[in-house]
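step: validate -> pass
step: tokenize input -> pass
step: predict -> running
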Amino acid sequence: MSDETRHAQRAASFASTAAAYERARPGYPQDLLDRVFAEVGIDRPRILDLGAGTGKLTRQLLAFGSVTAVEPLDAMRAQLEAVVPDATSLAGNAESIPLTDGSIDVVTVGQAYHWFDQAKANPEIWRVLADGGHLVALWNSQDETVPWLAAIDEIMNRDDPKESHPDRTKWWTSRFENEPWFTVPVLLTGSMTVSTTKQLMLDEMESRSYLSIRPPEDRQPILAEVAAVIAGFDDPFDVPYETEAYWCRKLPHTAS
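step: predict -> pass
step: emit ->
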């Protein structure tokens, strides 16, 4: 199986764990979103949440403007529509966005940009953005300087080093070098502490593509290892997260 095929299968595998994703995945630090939209500087912008999943970011965006959520997977989009009825929900993907040219002021991407085919997605995002529009990509990561979280990360990536967290400062900005679509992204950072339970921690792990691509019976030995790490914890317990937001603007020209 080629890397491209496996990557596509992993992206589609979230459909099998959509309910767990919705139960267990966290949102994003509110103060970081406030800073992002202060940088955007548009009153009540038209926002597109692209690759919106179950709407973890979508629901927080409603405070800033009107929101359209585009998600390719029916199971994920069904969760979003149930939880975030005030957003406009559309089937679609980053490579073929079902919106007209220049109809959006801000495109946000939460925990999803790495699933896109950037060669197709970047010009599509550029197309739907109004002149001077903004693109913001966000990633949450559990704070792996904490020993028990580092142990879980090792379990979750033991056989899969290519899918461990990339150096996003290099990985993300390199996508924009010598391209005509966007300015070089600026990094804004935030953090948060999320209260969870042992079961929700297992749900979060199962909702990661490393496990969601596997049949349910093949997930259980790995989940048992994670459960052993947190077995002695109080319930609930706190999980620290670090969040990165990469913000850039649409350039005023097209590819030659």
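step: describe -> The chain has a mean pLDDT of 91.
step: cleanup -> pass
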